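Q: Convert this sequence to structure tokens.
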Amino acid sequence: MTKAEQITSRVDALRSWMRQHNLSAFIFPSTDPHTSEYVPDHWKTREWISGFNGSAGTAVVTLTRAALWTDSRYWLAADEQTAGTPFEVMRCSRNVATTDELIEWISKERQAPAGDDEEAPMVGIDGWCVAQSYAVGLQGAVDAAGMTLCTDRDPAAVLWTDRPSLPASPIELQPLEYAGETAESKLQRIRETVGEAGANATIVTQLDDIAWTLNMRGTDVHCTPVFVAYLMILPDSATLYVDAAKLSPEVRRYLDGINVQTAPYQTIADDLSRSRGLRGLCFLIDPDTTNSAIYNYLAMADTLDSRSVFPDDFYANAMNIAISNAAPITVPIVEAECPVAQMKTLKNTAEIRGMHSAMLKDGVAMVKCLRALSQIIRQGQDLDSLDITEMGVDKMLTAFRAEQEGFRDISFDTIAGYGHHAAIVHYEASPETDIPLKPHGLLLLDSGAQYVDGTTDITRTIALGPLTYEERRDYTLVLKGHIRLATAVFPKGTSGTQLDVLARYAMWQDHKNYGHGTGHGVGSFLSVHEGPHQFRMNWMPAPLRAGMTITIEPGIYIAGSHGVRIENTMLIVEDDSPVNQSPIDEKANVQSGAWLRMEPLTLCPVDTKPIVMEMMAPDEVAYLNNYHARVREALLPLLTDEDDRHWLIKATEAI
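A:
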């Protein structure tokens, strides 16, 4: 059976199940009970039903139609992966389809509103795998369309016969030399922030937030060193809801020492439904990161529906125990951003030191890989194709990284896209799509690694030989955008949206643009994508602050031809450089911390061969030359192979 036939069979089975449960449509989001970007295999229900494996998207199946919404990063990939299946690809401008878009599409099957004797169509979604804020928006859209919403069903629990089990990897401690702050200190700061918001308890649900708070790491999620758990923080204690099999004696002693109790992962629903034990507590809950089921246990303990049915062990145990113990009171809730989100974005001295260390090691690995690739190019200049494929480049780079001290994993699946594949923003080569490189055109290489002291994220676009003028022009436009944003000096309080245009200005003049964001935060041996601060066209109000990391990664993608992206990870620092000031604003400008700038953490040469020099401004050339001098100074002492050293010196020559 082909993959397309498998997907079609699953959709047919789902529709039979939907008829049994009086559902007209079912929505499959991309996330898990922890609103993760990258989720454990157990919760990849959207991929299971649609076949699409991108990190962002929403699948919807009705009794007669099926559709997949995703953003511009994945349009081409989604078309390929859903070909021959019942799914049509819906192109949306953001990484999550709006509730109005989904419900409008679902409602098109209804030719007339429900009459008095006609049951309103029911739309289903798993309340454990959708954020409360999204569920509220979905409820509003469903109500407006004259439908009803059901959040207590999980068809995958019945139909996904070989569904992966919940991950059970062991947890390890993150040494204080890398964390830079004790878990006791972090818990105290969280309690203080919660108190300032008018609450005295909170539930931390995002996995990287929990790992950061407790100075613990795991391997439950692909490429991200986290573990599946919830963390309830009360005024004088805390409870970590986690599979006991993950806890070594050392970890248990550590948790006891910081006054953190443990309980089985599935029992959080039971504990929340025992609202008698929560009297006197007011919970700060982030509706954007807390799933709808958890939220409703707190907010509606007196209205639990005893008819709820969760067929698999996790859902049955959690919900049925909760129902039997429900108490007729509600627990006060203060809706606010989880305080951990902002705390972990501001890197302390130890974390910054670790990021610099990780970037040095990553730079060495990148130089070794690019030098080896240049040798392959030279040897194959007169051949039709080079003796390496896209997957071969990925394997080679990962091997060089694995040689570095403290390497743990890659930080995301490597994007090695040659030629037209580079125009697929988040392309990932597979045995079916892997192609050999040729001695011409561009290779886009977007990759990163997890080291015990830091996380890296870097993109380089490399000329493999002769290029067209359009390829060179697009490369130069992207480089100009990268440099313009990298050299920005901006006042404290500026958001990434206010600066995003700097990366796009040059290419806009050429009527070109890209659909993804320009930059995101990077964790400290944590998630490669960290927020809430970003560089993005749409409004992101989170202010940029000294101590934050953020990437700069503009790109241009020409379908069927080529793609270009150049990315460095940056550190936001205070700008105390002297400037010419008029008397009227002198005092404002010299305030400590009033102005910010960025300095590059990433250390790796940028390919200068594709640059159209007449397009470059003098200050842009100066920035690139200064950056290359810094790369050469930092990496040359770490390279022992003379060929690597010679390549680095050549690659960082002033232009």
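The two ends are 56 Å apart (CA to CA).
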